[in-house]
Each structure stands twice: as structure tokens, then as C-alpha cells.
amino-acid N-acetyltransferase
Amino acid sequence: MAASLAAGASARFVAGGEASPARPRPAAPARVAWRSRPPAAGVRCRGARAPAGGVLPEEADDGARFVGWFREAWPYIRGHRGSTFVVVVSGEVVAGPHFDGILQDISLLHGLGIKFVLVPGTHVQIDKLLAERGKKAKYAGRYRITDSDSLEAAMEAAGRIRLTIEAKLSPGPPMLNLRRHGVNGRWHEIADNVASGNFLGAKRRGVVAGIDYGFTGEVKKIDVSRIRERLDRDSIVVVSNMGYSSAGEVLNCNTYEVATACALAIEADKLICIVDGQIFDEHGRVNRFMSIEEADMLIRTRAKQSEIAANYVKVVDEEDINHVRNLPMKHDAVYGLNGRDHINGYTASFRNGVGFNNGNGLSGEQGFAIGGEERLSRSNGYLSELAAAAYVCHGGVQRVHIVDGTVGGSLLLELFTRDGVGTMIARDMYEGTRMAREEDLSGIRKIIHPLEESGVLVRRTDKELLEALSSFIVVERDGSIIACAALFPYLEDKSGEVAAIAVSEECRGQGQGDKLLDYVEKKALSLGLEKLFLLTTRTADWFVRRGFKECSIESLPVVRRKRIDLSRGSKYYMKRLQVAEVGHMAVNGFAMR
């Protein structure tokens, strides 16, 4: 009953299947010793006898695990190649012991074809330098008050961090590991190129509510063309939070304001926030996924306790009103309007050369500059980062990841495994996806009718379709149904049947099928189901690529077996679900630790 469809890979690139066992090596001739050379000094010889194939059992296990991981990562490696990621690293992580490992992983990912813009946090280093000089850091709201002493410390901290990044990224991978593949001149050219410069234009924040912010700056311009030029030359771009004014001043800008400006201005594929902790749900589990609507709802519930959350709500609600009055006109393109789409009437808009705009011509106060005492105390956990994430998602960045940099390899695990280890906020994961209503009947019929005519789907009368409508899920776009699927649960068997997955012809190849299947899996998990099954005649390969395996009719629930039309000759497939695949979010009791 599963439909044929041509759907692109989903944003998280589902990797199904298990690793193939290691291929046995041919037996070595009897006259050849197992080790042709004695072990190097300091290496302890194993006492176990090697098998005929020349590989010890533990070595075979290690090899199989490595091959399995590499095959699982393959869709992500291909999918991320050529993408542009803006990575903002919190000051706590930059000043901590894990920063070197993060830079090493960024180097690895850059070698796999990912383009990086790196924005390092500096506030911890600045505060430390001020304390060493007998000065006290001063904050007002989300911003630092940058007097002459603070500016000097900020310039020194930014310079030190930039030099550290350049030094750590310069060596490239260890040469010793490459020599066994032969001496090649190209090995000496694989060090990472790091580009930095005056990419950031700023203006003074000035006096706000009677407070003089001194040399604190607000982002006015990102030099998009020069950043892209260096990315295209295979450089990792480092953007400092030190901006330059039209008057020739150096200004200290908020790191997250710089990062969100970069992500919006260069139209990054992802913004990755590397912090020193995680976001948990009310059960103490890491929350793997939030839609932009869920993140928005959570931020709003904290608006009374958090100045940053309140500011986010203010900006979003003001834009919701102002966008109707000030719809962008054609000439806006001249100014580089990078807020690309509206969600619920709101879009984050960064006008290059002007700054962030709230609809009345004033920049700043936009809810993505995070800092000050609230963030330093972590009184609201990582709500600040969540607000910044929701903001740039509104502006058109498809995915934002909040990752714990104190976990070894967290960046690799977040990007190369299905469910990751951090929290992903997605702008379009299930946008327009909902349970079907009676008025959707004609739209569903229109999509599945051609597949019924071709014999791919079982024919249903309007009455049968109406009776099953409560089990259907649809994707709606501009008032039209563009895709559908059905989930029929068998609670006593803890299983569910996936049926009638169909995508309208004009929307195929856009990942709608993967989006629906992912939604179905999460819904099944929320119902307590442990496995999904389906019957298909023509679309087995599509489902096999997404983790389903052929099974016997005896594997299906008895009550379902009795209703199978054996004359169709359908094949049966099943997939076991993993609890980690669900990204549950509950606003009440949600822990922002």
C-alpha cells in the first residue's frame, strides 16, 4: 500500500542499514610469516595466534566498526559537501580545554568540503584581562559597556584568539599517518588556509536609556563579497567581534550579534552554536529537535523571567505588525535584504550597510544580541542561545544546532549521525505538516488517484478514504495538499502500518517523502510503537534505503494478516524504531540546563 515517489533526502540524511561484515582476506602462503617485520620499539606483541586470514578477532571487530561508521556517515559527508556553516563558539568554550579539539574537528570537516565562517567568543578573556588589571567588567542588559580599558582588553583578547586559531589550524593532519600511502607533494599542501580581516562594519551603540555604552558597537555591515571570495578559495574565514566604524574607530560588538548577522548576510546553510552545556527536556533527556514554532512557544513562556526572551517577543510581535505596513518593495534588493521568507508574518531582516531593522528604521534591540549578567549567571540556562537560534531561523537559515562543546567529538556526532548529540532548531522540518481534516479529502484523492490507476496503491472508495481520514497526515502549501501518508497503529502489537505515502508530481524530488516518513516515525514513537511495517509492490527500494527490511507475513499483526489481498503479491517490510529518533518537546517543565 506504499506509494511510489521521487523524494529527495531529508535535511538530516537518514542513514539506514547495518554495517556489512569485514571481508575476509585470502589466506597468506605458508612461507610468508604473519609479521614480515618485527614490531616497533615500545609496541607490546600480542600472544594470540593469528587466524589463517592474518587478522586477529579484535582487529576484525575494530575494522568492522570503522567500516560500519564510515558507511553510516557517507550520506552526511555527501550531503554537507559545499555547504556553508557559521560557527559561533562561546567564550567559555574558547577559554576552556576543549577548544583545540573543536578546531581539529573543524579542520577535518573543512577537508570534507564544508565551508566555515568561525566567530569566536571573547567575553571570558576580556573579563579576565580586566580583572588582572584591577578593573571591573560592566554590563547593561545584553551589552557590555566598553570604556577605554575594556576596549584595550577586547582588542588584546580578539588578537590572541585569532592567532591561536590560525596556529591550531595551520599544521593540517599528522604527516606520519599519511606516509604509508607514499610520499606525495600534495601532502604538504593540505594545511588549512585561515582568512581574517576587516569584514565587519559597525556603528556606536551610543546612549540608550541614559546609559553611555562607550566603544560598544552594533553590526552595520558584513563584507559578503570578500567573505565569499575567501570561502571559494578554500579558506576558513574567522570573523572577529571587533568592528570598524566609518569614522575609523574600533568598536567592540556582541559576538552573537556578529554571528547571526553573518549567517543572515551570507545566507548560510547552518548556524552552529557551540556552548558549554546541553538543553534537556522535562525527563532529563537531551532534546534533539525543536521546530521553530516550539522554540518560539518556549521562549514566550519565559518572557517574564528573561530580558532576552522578552526582547525576542517584542521584536517578533512588532515585526508581525510592521511587515504588513512595510512590505519589501523591489528596490529593497539594492540594499541586500537577507530576511528571505516570512513565517507567521515575521522575518528577521538584516540590511547590509544599515544593520538589523525592526520596521521603523532603527537598528539594534533585535533579540539576538545575547550577553550580560543574565547569560553570565545562566539563570535561564541556554534560553539566550535558543532565542538567537529562533531569530535566524525566522530569517531564512534552515537549521541551527546548539551543541555541547565539552563533549569530545560533539561536532562530528551532531553532523554525521541521524539524531545528533545536541539540539537542532529547524525552520522547515515539518512546516505545513498536520493531521488531515475532512476538507482535505479531495486533495488527498487528487494525489493518490494516479497511483491507484497504475496499481501502485490499493483502490479506496470515497467512503473508505473518509473512514480512514483520521489516520492520514498531509503537507499543505499555499492552501493545497502536496503530500500525504497514513499511519494505522496496532497498539496491542506495538506496531504501526505505513500506507499511502504519496507526493504530488510537481513537488517530487524536494524531500517531502522523507519529511512525511520522519513525521510518521516520530508520531509512532509518541504512541508507544516499537516498529513500523508496510506492504508494497513497486516501491521497495525507496523504503529499503530508509532502514526498512523485508520480512515474512507472519511478522505482521494477526488482525492485519486477515485483511491482506494475497492476489496483489505484495512484499512486506518492517523497521524497528529507536527511542533516540523522537525529538519530544514539552514547554511545561522544560529544563534549559
